[in-house]
Amino acid sequence: MAKPLDSELKERLRAVLGDRRVTEADLRRLAEEGRACALILRAQLAKREQALTALSADPASSLSEIAEALREVNQLRPGLAELEALLDDLEERARQVRLAWVSAASGAH
After folding, report:
1. What are the angstrom distances between the C-alpha of 44 and each of 41, 50, 73, 87, 94?
2. Can you tell me the distance from the alpha carbon of 98 to that of 94, in angstroms, rounded to the nearest whole number?
3. In sequence order, what are the residues at sequence separation of 6 or more whose Cβ sits closer than 8 angstroms to the Cβ of residue 25?
4. Maximum alpha-carbon separation in the chain
5. Is residue 32 a contact partner of residue 49, using CB atoms and an 8 Å limit?
6. What is the DSSP string of the chain?
């Protein structure tokens, strides 16, 4: 089975959130990648939800088609929620890094 699109990104986010040392540039790059991935996942989820709605409304749709679309929606939704939570945590980590940098810079004067 193929790895989900966001699995490697989530691993890197967890590493940074687990107090791995990181630069401001790394934080920005990771946040950008995360936002792009979230956009892709939101689009995939919307597409699968639309397909599920269309399949459910079509009496000619097979139960297996509906079940497959429902399975995909049920896989995408929690994955997207997890990614969004990790990105929120990353944003907080970035604020902490910036605050520490500003505090260190102002203490040096």
Report:
1. 5, 10, 9, 19, 28
2. 6
3. none
4. 74
5. no
6. -PPPTTHHHHHHHHHHHTT----HHHHHHHHHHHHHHHHHHHHHHHHHHHHHHHHHH-TTS-HHHHHHHHHHHHHHHHHHHHHHHHHHHHHHHHHHHHHHHHHHHHHT-
Q: What is the mean pLDDT of the chain?
A: 90
- The tens digit of pLDDT for each residue in 63-95 reads 999 999 999 999 999 999 999 999 999 999 999
pLDDT tens readout for residues 38-65: 999 999 999 999 999 999 999 999 999 9
CB proximity list for 97: less than 8 A, separation 6 or greater:
22, 24, 27
Whether the pLDDT of residue 20 is over 80: the answer is no
pTM: 0.83
The count of other CB atoms within 10 Å of the CB of residue 18 is: 7
What pLDDT does residue 3 have? 66
